[in-house]
């Protein structure tokens, strides 16, 4: 229909042109000027002109009183010239009339000219519409030959039609078209500004030139017409058919654009917010195809110029959708770098491939594409910015670069058929799809590319930058090179590998094992990077040989508490060939739990060895603290390794270490010796027949009351004494042979020494009996029970014991002198307790049986400076030997851990005490009662004040050390004060307070005794 209409129109146009040309040729051109005051306003009325004739050459217009002109008949003129100062003229060319310009056309120097055309208005030759205003109101407006619309303003309304024929041009005119605008033959839209609300047609060899066109209707490019360099805003529809082309136009379309027949997009820039479609055998050519907006669609429904489904486009970019259908689209020929954020769809059914990237630019696929046909990278860069960038397609590379964005995981298969670089600029991207092909892989960029599939490509692998992480397998590759500045990591399998100087091999991802199927060679200056946790280390297993010369091992400890152990960090089945690494770095970052990280080798393995650390013993520690730390260090130094819990001693600060060592030293086990001595001494004091004790004196008066018998009394004095007191004469004291007694005692002691202090308390009872064998000799025995408890300062523990004791004693007087002695045995059921807070809260306890034996001998002499008042002074000297025997025993944990539980070796501690002092006594008769006051002041010296035991950590055999109990002073002062009351009935009671004082010890004790003699 359109073709028939166009043919008819051309025929009528040609006929009109022929008529005009014939008429023009039969007349002689004449010029004339429009009068200032013409009689009429009719253009073709001769009297209105200066010559009296209607001009056929040039019509001049100046100032006139009549400026609105009409025509009575068709008119032909060479041109109109509006002189300077001319009025503003208007012309109406009515229906059926024809106005023809066959010369220069319209020239406006002054004033203005507006033409309303309802008939036929034509420009020929090189004529121009100048700057006229033309309202083509339903008429026909023709620009023929080489004529031009100049700078005219043309409004085509109604059923009007505007024609540009032959080589005519729209010039720089401003054209508003509401109906039809034709460009025929080789005409051009020039630099015109065209607003199209109707239809525009370009045919034959016409061009849109450099026009600016806003299309709200339709534009058709037919035949070999071209959009030229026009800037077209399309809000309607544009059709390119036959062999037309969009050429270099810039087309922004919000409507539709259709390419059909053999038309092409040329090198246009086509920005689409609507729909663009390629049908028949059309092609995008080298055009830039840009989708703008989510609803924009470009459809490739063409079979291509060769009918084989292959299409080309300079580039594609933007959002929306690119529907490739079954076509194969090659892009990138314009070498631009573009990004597609929209969706690529297509199955590539024509050739098996949907998209081919060529050129030197970068095509970035950032959308979630659904393309299923193959994607081929021929050259340039294909950047993947979405996990679905390739849809389900297989990516084939013939060269160029595949670039991955950080965080991607591409699951598509890749086939390498040409030298290809795989680039990650920064971050980490994963290629989980299998890589195949006969060419190699070149890793570039500073980021990390992770290969997780089992690949089958056979070319060489080169890591030229960043990191290649192999967690799958690339063992099929012909070889792997890690160049300077590059790193290989992973837990997968790789082929024969060469690490160049400056390159790094780092097996594992964190901790893991890498397998080299072949040989491994480190170059001088290369690095073997290994991460180590407290329980495992990175490892490389090499199926062939490994050459280590020149490489450095870089160790990175992971967070945790490290202990002594050996890690295998490299194994080579074919051996190391006697090579070793050049050095080891990172050795100072394992913490305080280990020391001396170093490498060792055998024929096939490289080991990282961490020796156990020793405790750093600060200055100023006590003996126990030093002994226990030294014991641990001795075990470590001899190759032992303490249990993991001991690491806390290495990791705590220097300020906390002394307290921790105090706690684990087990001083409570050594303190039992001194506390046991204290308990034994109190029992011995209760048996001392020379003191104010249950074994000390008989209850009868007489010669044996005192420490030694007094000087025999004068019978007269004795009788007088009895007479004064009203008593009968005393009987012989030997008449009372037996006595029984019971005593209770208790006391407390505080001893400071060895960096700690011990507080203990003892309470006991005993019963005894003695027999006077002669006036001067008495023997007796006693049995007793007691208990004691003790506690160390600083929360270092304590204990308690139940005690059974037995002893015999005797005394013999000779004149003013005396001898006394005691033998005793004690059995102690001891329980020790201590709480440790070194690792959590541990409660350690032990129970054992200790034995004590004692012997004491004393000799003294009585002086009676005032016999009449019963006052005596008794200097004396004594020796006492005590042995306390501890068995071997061990602690157990009643709560928490037994990590620091100790086993104690058996220990016998013997002390010889010597005493030198004086006792005093004053006896007073009160009615039938004898009241005696006694006191003592003495110096005591202990030959052995050491209280050591040997302890061993149960969890660390060999860590034995001496722990010292609280050590008393060797010299001390003994004081006592007592009172005894005796009745003639044979009963007596006595009480004593005793104290022992030195620069380390404060002891207080009290005893009470009830005796009956008969």
From TrEMBL:
<feature type="region of interest" description="Disordered">
    <location>
        <begin position="688"/>
        <end position="712"/>
    </location>
</feature>
<dbReference type="InterPro" id="IPR013425">
    <property type="entry name" value="Autotrns_rpt"/>
</dbReference>
<dbReference type="Pfam" id="PF12951">
    <property type="entry name" value="PATR"/>
</dbReference>
<feature type="domain" description="Autotransporter">
    <location>
        <begin position="733"/>
        <end position="1014"/>
    </location>
</feature>
<protein>
    <submittedName>
        <fullName>Autotransporter domain-containing protein</fullName>
    </submittedName>
</protein>
<dbReference type="Pfam" id="PF03797">
    <property type="entry name" value="Autotransporter"/>
</dbReference>
<dbReference type="InterPro" id="IPR036709">
    <property type="entry name" value="Autotransporte_beta_dom_sf"/>
</dbReference>
<keyword id="KW-0732">Signal</keyword>
<feature type="signal peptide">
    <location>
        <begin position="1"/>
        <end position="29"/>
    </location>
</feature>
<feature type="compositionally biased region" description="Polar residues">
    <location>
        <begin position="690"/>
        <end position="703"/>
    </location>
</feature>
<dbReference type="InterPro" id="IPR012332">
    <property type="entry name" value="Autotransporter_pectin_lyase_C"/>
</dbReference>
<dbReference type="InterPro" id="IPR005546">
    <property type="entry name" value="Autotransporte_beta"/>
</dbReference>
<dbReference type="InterPro" id="IPR006311">
    <property type="entry name" value="TAT_signal"/>
</dbReference>
<dbReference type="InterPro" id="IPR011050">
    <property type="entry name" value="Pectin_lyase_fold/virulence"/>
</dbReference>
């Amino acid at each position: 229909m359109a073709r028939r209409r166009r043919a008819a129109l051309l025929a009528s146009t040609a006929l009109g042109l022929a008529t005009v040309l014939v008429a023009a040729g039969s007349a002689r051109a004449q010029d004339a000027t429009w009068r200032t005051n013409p009689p009429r306003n009719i253009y073709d009325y001769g009297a209105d002109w200066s010559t009296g004739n209607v001009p056929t050459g040039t019509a001049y217009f100046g100032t006139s009183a009549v400026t609105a002109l009409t025509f009575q008949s068709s008119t032909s003129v060479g041109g109109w010239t509006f002189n300077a100062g001319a009025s503003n003229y208007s012309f109406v060319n009515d229906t059926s009339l024809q106005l023809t310009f066959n010369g220069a056309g319209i020239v406006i120097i002054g004033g203005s000219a507006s033409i309303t055309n309802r008939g036929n208005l034509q420009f020929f030759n090189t004529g121009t519409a100048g700057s006229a205003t033309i309202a083509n109101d339903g008429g026909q407006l023709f620009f023929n030959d080489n004529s031009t619309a100049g700078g005219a303003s043309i409004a085509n309304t109604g059923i009007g039609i505007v024609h540009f024929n032959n080589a005519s041009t729209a010039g720089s005119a401003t054209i508003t078209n509401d109906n039809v605008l034709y460009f025929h033959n080789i005409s051009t839209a020039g630099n015109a500004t065209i607003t199209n609300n109707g239809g525009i047609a370009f045919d034959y060899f016409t061009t849109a030139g450099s026009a600016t066109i806003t299309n709200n209707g339709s534009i058709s490019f037919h035949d070999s017409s071209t959009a030229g360099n026009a800037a077209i805003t399309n809000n309607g529809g544009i059709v390119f058919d036959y062999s037309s082309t969009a050429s270099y136009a810039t087309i922004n379309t919000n409507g539709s654009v259709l390419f059909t027949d053999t038309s092409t997009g040329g090198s246009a820039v086509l920005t689409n917010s609507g729909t663009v479609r390629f049908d028949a055998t059309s092609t995008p050519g080298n055009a830039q195809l840009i989708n703008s907006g989510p609803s924009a669609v470009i459809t490739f429904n063409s079979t291509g110029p060769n009918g084989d489904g292959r299409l080309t486009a300079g580039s594609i970019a933007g959002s929306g959708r690119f529907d490739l259908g079954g076509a194969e689209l090659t892009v990138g020929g314009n070498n631009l770098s573009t990004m597609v954020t929209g969706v690529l769809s297509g199955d590539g059914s024509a050739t098996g491939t949907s998209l081919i990237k060529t050129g030197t630019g970068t095509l970035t696929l950032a959308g979630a594409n659904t393309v299923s046909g193959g994607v081929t990278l021929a050259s340039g860069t294909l950047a993947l910015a979405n996990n679905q960038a390739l849809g389900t397609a297989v990516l084939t590379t013939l060269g160029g670069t595949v670039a991955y964005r950080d965080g991607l995981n591409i699951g598509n298969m890749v086939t390498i058929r040409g030298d290809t670089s795989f680039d990650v600029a920064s971050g980490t991207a994963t290629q989980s799809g299998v890589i195949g092909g006969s060419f190699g892989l070149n890793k570039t960029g500073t980021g990390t590319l992770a290969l997780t599939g089992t690949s089958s490509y056979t070319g060489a692998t080169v890591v030229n930058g960043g990191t290649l992480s192999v967690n799958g397998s690339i063992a099929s590759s012909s070889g792997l090179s890690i160049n300077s500045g590059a790193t290989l990591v992973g837990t997968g399998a790789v082929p024969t590998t060469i690490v160049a100087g400056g390159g790094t091999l780092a097996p594992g991802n964190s901790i893991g094992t890498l397998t080299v199927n072949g040989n491994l060679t480190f170059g001088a200056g290369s690095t073997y990077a290994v991460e180590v946790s407290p329980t495992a280390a990175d490892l490389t297993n090499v199926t062939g040989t490994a050459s280590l010369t020149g490489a450095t091992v870089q160790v990175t400890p992971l967070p945790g508490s490290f202990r002594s152990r050996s890690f295998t960090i490299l194994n080579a089945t074919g051996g190391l060939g006697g090579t070793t690494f050049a050095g080891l770095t990172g050795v100072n970052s394992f913490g305080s739990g280990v020391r001396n990280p170093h490498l060792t080798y055998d024929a096939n393995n490289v080991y990282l060895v961490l020796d156990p650390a020793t405790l750093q013993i600060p200055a100023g520690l006590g003996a126990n603290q030093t002994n226990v730390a030294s014991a641990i260090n001795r075990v470590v130094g001899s190759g032992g390794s303490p249990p993991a819990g001991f690491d806390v001693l290495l990791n705590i600060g220097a300020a906390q270490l002394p307290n921790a060592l105090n706690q684990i030293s087990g001083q409570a086990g050594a303190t039992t010796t001194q506390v046991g001595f204290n308990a034994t001494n109190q029992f011995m004091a209760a048996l001392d027949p020379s003191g104010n004790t249950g074994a000390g004196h008989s209850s009868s008066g007489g010669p044996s009351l005192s420490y030694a018998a007094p000087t025999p009394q004068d019978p007269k004095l004795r009788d007088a004494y009895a007479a004064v007191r009203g008593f009968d004469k005393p009987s012989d004291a030997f008449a009372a042979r037996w006595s029984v007694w019971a005593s209770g005692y208790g006391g407390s002691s505080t001893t400071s020494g060895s960096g700690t202090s011990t507080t203990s308390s003892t309470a006991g009872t005993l019963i005894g009996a003695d027999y006077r064998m002669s006036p001067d000799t008495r023997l007796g025995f006693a049995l007793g029970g007691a208990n004691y408890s003790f506690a160390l300062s600083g929360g270092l523990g304590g204990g308690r014991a139940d005690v059974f004791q037995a002893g015999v004693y005797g005394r013999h007087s000779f004149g003013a002198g005396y001898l006394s002695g005691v033998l005793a045995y004690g059995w102690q059921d001891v329980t020790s307790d201590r709480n440790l807070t070194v690792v959590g809260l541990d409660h350690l306890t032990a129970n054992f049986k200790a034995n004590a034996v004692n012997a004491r001998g004393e000799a003294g002499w009585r002086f009676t400076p005032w016999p009449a008042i019963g006052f005596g002074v008794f200097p004396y000297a004594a020796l006492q030997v005590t042995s306390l025997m501890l068995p071997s025993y061990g602690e157990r944990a009643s709560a928490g851990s037994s990590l620091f539980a100790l086993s104690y070796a058996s220990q016998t501690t013997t002390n010889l005490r010597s005493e030198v002092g004086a006792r005093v006594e004053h006896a007073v008769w009160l009615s039938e009662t004898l009241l005696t006051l006694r006191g003592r002041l003495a110096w005591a010296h202990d030959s052995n004040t050491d209280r050591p035991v040997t302890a061993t950590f149960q969890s660390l055999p060999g860590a034995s050390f001496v722990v010292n109990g609280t050590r008393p002073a060797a010299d001390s002062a003994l004081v006592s004060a007592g009172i005894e009351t005796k009745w003639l009935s044979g009963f007596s009671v006595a009480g004593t307070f005793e104290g022992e004082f030195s620069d380390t010890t404060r002891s207080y004790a009290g005893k009470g005794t009830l005796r009956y003699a008969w």
